[in-house]
Structures
1.
Amino acid sequence: MSEKHSPVLLVHGGAWAIPDEMAEPHVNGVRHAVAAGWKVLERGGSSVDAVEAAIVVMEDDETFDAGRGSFLPSDGRVQLDALMMDGASLRAGGVGCVERIRNPIRAARLVLDESPHVYLVAEGAERFAHQHGLPLCANEELVIEREVERLRQVQEQALVGKPPEFFAEHDTVGAVALDRGGNLAAATSTGGTLNKTPGRVGDSSLIGCGCYADNESAAVSTTGWGEPIMKLVLAKWAADRVLEGVVPKAAAEMAIDRLETRLAGHGGIILLDARGRYGLAHNTPRMAWALKSVHVETAGIECPSV
Ligand code: ASP
C-alpha cells in the first residue's frame, strides 16, 4: 500500500432522541470504536480492517442495537444484519437475519473476502460463516433482559393502540474510513427496529441504502428509520452528490433533508471522501459519533459545526 494519504475514521452509534442518562455510554462506545479502528489505520492497515475493528467494538457493547443486546423482533429472537463495502474494488459483503453470530460484521467481511456473492441470509449465512471459521452461538446468548422488557412494553402498548415513539431508538452502528493507501471502506451493523416482523431486512445491510463505499465518490453509513432510507437508496444518493462535486458536509445535509422532505423519514448519516473530507448530519434530536484523524480527535451526540 502506498503511503500518500492521511487516514481518517468516522463512526456513528445511532441517531434518535438519546436521553441524557444514555449520553455517556453512547459517547464512550463510539470513542472506544474509533480507538480500535484507529490502531489499524495508524499502523498502515486497510480501511476495510479499520471499519471491521470499529464495528466489532460497538457490536460487543450492549449500549448499541448491534450484536448482543440488540432490539428484539416480535418473536423475541435477535436477528442481525450487517454490510461492509470496499471502495477500491467495490466488493461488498452482507448478511441478513442471522441469529447465531455475535459479530455479524465479521460474517459480512467473510462474504466480502471469500464468497462470489454479495449477500447471504439466515441459516445459509450462518453456515457459510461457520465453515470459514466463525464460531456460532445460541440466540439466547444475544438476548439481554433490558431488551426483553423493552419488547414487552412496546407490545403491551401496541395492544392498547398506542403508536410507537416518533424518534424511536435507532442505535445501529456504522463506520467509514480512509487508509494511507487512499482507499475508502464503509460498514454498518444492526439488530434492526424494535418489534420488527421476523425476516424483515432493514436499510443497514442493503447496498447503497445503509452503507456504500466507492473511492471515486464517498464512503457512507446511515442510521434511522430504515424503510424510508431504503426507498431513497440514501447512502448511494449521498455518494452521488459527492461524485458531482458537492462537498461531503453539504452532501450529508442534503441527504437528510431529502429523507425528511421526500418521505418524512428521520435518521442520520456519516460520509467521508477519498480526500479525507467528511460530513455528518441527522434530523433526530441526537446522533452519537466520533472522529479521528491525524489532526482531530473528537466525539459527541450532536453534529459538530465543522
Ligand atoms: N436503520 C436501522 C433499520 O431500520 C435501524 C437503526 O438505524 O437503528 O433496521
2.
Amino acid sequence: MAKLLAEGLIRDVADFPKPGIVFKDITPVLHSPAAVIEVCELLAADAKARDADAIVAIESRGFLFGMPIALQLGLPFTPARKLDKLPFHRISEEYALEYGTNTVEMHTDAISPGQRAYIVDDLLATGGTAAACARLVERLGGKVCGFGFLVELTFLNGRANLLQSPVRALIEY
Ligand code: AMP
C-alpha cells in the first residue's frame, strides 16, 4: 500500500512529557486536511466493516479523529474523558500509561445495551487506555467491535491488552 500522507508528517519529540519518552506529535498531521481525511476514511471503513453503531473516542487527541469518523458514518459519537471532566452521571476505570497512571470516564447514558462501539485514539502504546475504555463500554452493556488508531508503537505490545476485539493501526513504529 502507498505510504500515508500522515506518515511523513508525524514528528518525534524527545523527552516529552518526561525524560526518556519519545512523543509522537500528530499536530502536523492536523495541518493537512488531505492527511486527516485519509486517516478518517481508512478508520471509518474499518469501523463500518466491524458493523459499528457508535464511535467512542479517547480524550483528547482521539476526539480529533473520532468525531469526523462518526459524522462520516452517520453514527453517534461519545467521548471517553479523563477524571472529573464529564458533568453528568459517570463510571470510571483506572489505567496505566506509558508515563504514569490515569482514570478514564464515560457518561452512564453514553452507550446503550447491545450497542457495538468502535474505539478510536490517536496512538496505541501499552494499550492500557484503550483497554480501560473497553471496560467502560462493556460495563454499560455495549460490545467493543474494534479499535482504530493512527499510530501503534509495536515494541510496547499494546495489542496484548486488546485481545477481545480486532485492532487496526494505520502506521506502525
Ligand atoms: P497507552 O495507554 O499506553 O496505550 O497510551 C496511549 C495514550 O497515551 C494515547 O492517548 C496517546 O495519545 C498517549 N501516548 C502514550 N505514549 C505516547 C507517545 N509516545 N507519543 C504520543 N502519545 C502517547
